[in-house]
Amino acid sequence: MNTCLEKKPAWVKHLQTFEAGTVKIKGKYTPKTSDHAAQCMLIGYAEQHDGDGYHIWNPLTKKKHVTRDVIWLK
Asked: Cβ(22)–Cβ(58) under 8 Å?
């Protein structure tokens, strides 16, 4: 009966539909003439981070990343 009193996860207020977003590519030695962003897909939420951390998948590199720097494509 106490289900409404349970603490909700921090990511609840940052919910997004499964959509595409542009993500900043962070690299220590990224050349100035290379792409600084990639289009990725949202696949989940990062539970170990604050509420605005996302698991994203880059289809070009076929790798999963955790980031907060996402500009959602709508």
From this structure: no
Model pLDDT for residues 31-68, shown as the tens digit of each residue = 777 777 888 888 888 877 777 788 888 888 898 888 88
**Length in residues, the chain:** 74
Please state whether the predicted TM-score (pTM) of the whole model is above 0.70. Answer: no
Give whole-number Cα distances, 25 to 5, 22, 41, 48, 70, in Å: 40, 9, 14, 21, 10
Residues 18, 43 contacting (CB under 8 angstroms): yes
Contact between residue 73 and residue 23 where contact means Cβ atoms under 8 Å apart? no
